């Protein structure tokens, strides 16, 4: 009898996964630990927001593209209106995306926001408005990525559905045309 273990899927992009988690963890860890060991709010604010900004940039421009095949940005058009722009890989490439990479991307994106919300609640309970400001900036950057990637994922699904509908319609019409051309 052969009791072969099922193949365990590894991370396809371990470096990207590492940096995707690194800046989130670093910002949270620095904020939590610095409150215990540092007395300077300015240092805590600057370093925590800098780490959170690095996380925002890495997620938006690197790990989102590599781990889930999505990219988003927001621009102002000629009328002064905010316009969301989305890019996604084609359907075939999206289907080949590593499930573990995707799982890590989405879970850490949402869990870090939950962590900032919990820290914000602690700041409210302790009446620390200055620390609430730090949490607010970090949470805002995190939520911007959540909103951007969630909209991008919905847009990608809509594009895939439109592609499938167009493909089926064109196949159907070519089948009908070939059926009538035979007659």
Task: Please write out the topology.
Layout: H1 14-37, H2 41-67, E1 70-76, E2 82-88, H3 91-95, H4 99-125, H5 129-182
Antiparallel strand pairs: 1-2
Helix pairs in contact: 1-2, 1-4, 2-5, 4-5
Structure description:
- The chain has five helices and two strands.
- The chain has 183 residues and is mainly α.
- 75% of the residues lie in helices and 8% in strands.
- The mean pLDDT is 79.
- The radius of gyration is 23 Å and the shape is globular.
- The protein has a two-stranded antiparallel ribbon.
- β1 (70-76) and β2 form a beta hairpin.
- The protein has helices at residues 14-37, 41-67, 91-95, 99-125, 129-182, and strands at residues 70-76, 82-88.
- The chain starts with 13 loop residues before the first helix and ends with a helix.
List descriptors:
single chain; globular; mainly alpha; 5 helices; 8% strand; two-stranded antiparallel ribbon; 75% helix; 183 residues
Summarize the structure.
It is built from five helices and two strands. With 183 residues, the chain is mostly helical.
User: Biggest sheet, in brief?
Assistant: 2 strands, antiparallel
Helices and strands, in order, run as HHEEHHH
Helix vs. strand class:
mainly alpha
Strands of the largest sheet, in order across it?
1-2
Q: Helical element count?
A: 5
